[in-house]
Amino acid sequence: MNTIPIPPEEIIIDYRKIFWSSKRIASMAIFIALCAVGALIKVPSPTGTVALDAAFAFFSAITFGWREGSIVAAFGHMLTALTTGFPLSFPIHIFVAVQMAVWVSIFQLVSRKFHLWFGAFIGIFLNGVVSSLLMIPIGGIGLMAALILPLTFAASINVFIAITAFLIINKSRMI
After folding, report:
1. Where on the phi/psi map is residue 11: left (φ > 0), alpha (ψ -120 to 50), or beta?
2. pLDDT tens digits for 55-76?
């Protein structure tokens, strides 16, 4: 077969369509680093892993998209668990990191499809109540009951910080 090579000057690359671009990776790395800072601000809970790390994941999701937000959320939770020594075990924290990625994605999709404040309610409900309920097979009703208030409180703060930052930055037309 004879194929005619395309000269390099005729190749047009649309970097907006490439997910793993250096700009996107750098942006996610910055927000993961901010999650590490948020991971150090703890909300008292029995596990010690409830923190303000998810604010930057929720912000990333609503600002840049659900894929970026879910990656930041998963790494953010793992950093929070790392700061406390993985008290629920590494596999359980992987499970929680996947939950966080899903919750942040749903938050972004609901916020874009319906309304930002409805997305906030859904994000808080999923991150606080549903995450607590999903702990029943792992630690029983006792762990669920001990986690529901701190998780819901922290989720409320995280989502409020994310939405406030998004509204301020969106109004200033920086993004």
Report:
1. beta
2. 999 999 999 999 999 999 999 9
Question: Distance from first CA to last CA of the chain, Å, rounded?
Answer: 48
Looking at the structure of the chain, the number of domains it has is 1
Q: Is residue 105 part of a domain?
A: yes
The pLDDT of residue 46:
85
pLDDT in tens, 149-160: 999 999 999 999
Residues 40 and 142: beta-carbon distance below 8 Å? no
User: 158, 58 in Cβ contact below 8 A?
Assistant: yes
Instruction: Kindly state the DSSP code that residue 6 receives in the 8-state scheme.
Output: P
Answer whether residue 57 is part of any domain: yes
